[in-house]
Amino acid sequence: MVGRSRSILLVEDDCIDVMNVQRAFKKNNINDPLHVANDGVEALAKLRGEGTDKITPSPRLIILDINMPKMGGLEFLEELRKDNQLRYLTVVILTTSNDERDIKAAYQYNIAGYIVKPVCFEEFVKTIKVLNDYLSLCEW
Amino acid sequence: MEIPINFLVADSQKNLPEMIALFSIFPAQTTLIDSNLTPISAINKDSLGFIIFSCNTAKDFESLLSAYVRESLLAVSIIVVVNTVEEGEELLDFGANNYLVKNLISREAILQVVNATIRIKSLKESLENTKLSNKKYIEKLTKEFDQFTYIISHDLRAPLRAISSLSEWIEEDLAGSVNVETRKNLVLLRERAKFSSVLIDGVLKYSRVSRTNSSIEFVNVTDLLNDLIYLKIDKPVGYSIEIEPNMPKFYTQSERLEQVFWQLLKNAIQFHDRCDGVIKILVREQENFYRFTVSDNGPGIASELHQKIFEIFYTVQKNVRTDSVGIGLALVKKIVELVGGSVWVESNSDGGSAFHFLWPKCLQNN
Known about the structure:
Chain A is an alpha/beta fold and 140 residues long. Chain A has helices at 15-27, 40-48, 73-82, 100-107, 121-137, and strands spanning 8-11, 34-37, 61-64, 91-95, 113-116. Chain B is elongated, with a radius of gyration of 33 Å.
């Protein structure tokens, strides 16, 4: 990555899905630090530095699952967009849900994209590559 | 007998004395007005149960009805007094609750008609109540169903993805040391996981189709088919798809019509056994329907399977092909029947199959 150092926050409760992202990063030679939070509450704590180390600088990207215990993706977005410090962060949804209601609801929170997790890992590697290329194009 | 409710008798001045005599059976409960002088809005509507309205023309009745709606008297029963049974029957269609025929009017007739009206009214009310509780029940079921399909789509898919990924990683991590047999098994494992995932998607699609509203739009079927063929279907080289030139242009649920054509075309290509496939799309106009046909020169379907292939999960080839789980034709049948049509298959003389479906020319917006 050229320019400012960037990190990525993955909000995901399924440990295999976390491995999925980690492996896909590795395959694409993406070496940015990847922080992991297991639900919305933990993610907010890490972003705000409440009771845990704050992620500084704020992550370039939040990859967000929808279905999670404690605080799901949509609730997390609601909180995030209300927070004056955090409302500008780029969020991409990465979920199994292709439910139209989830998609519509998520786009109300100014997300940068909604991606349904592919079943096959090979496809997922390509998905992450496209996402990375897209981010590299965007000013921030 | 006891009549619990009050009567408003509206008639012209000259008929009023007669009505006074007839309704003297319920003296305390009856208000009489000259329908030419006193508007309904002027009377006391408290505990009013019946309006007895002498009616000579349908127009009289219309003016009564508009007053009736305006004054929110919808709980009040209207009994019209008419000259003939035919007139009375006609006014029932316009919204009268019952009628009395002028020449046959008597105290007994009034009692009978009033009692019958009360009974009908209470039946109607209990019917409405049943309808309402059914509606609530259906709403509850629908909500449960939505939740159920949501859980299926999310929670059943997640482990499949995990199985698929893990097998790929195992293969990758073992790299050189994995033998041919193991590699083959890992591939099989992933195929099965993929198959399950396609199956889940299919089931969800099948169960969602009746829930999602498809809006009615103006459809040029030729354009719809061309879009499908060029944008949404992988047509192998050497295949031709011919569209008959007389395809209709009409208002219909375009998304659903497109889904039906997409599935039939996809099947015609997917199950074809030759590299020079010819698929024809035809239409015949009937009184209320268009009969569309998707015809192919493929391997054909044995006539004893012509019904079975529309059943959910039925597949002719019983091997695990990731793109053939037995949903497509079941989905076609469900959509076509949802809009009030039907679908069937016939064998062509050259051995291929022709899928016909009837699609209504005119669809109501739910």
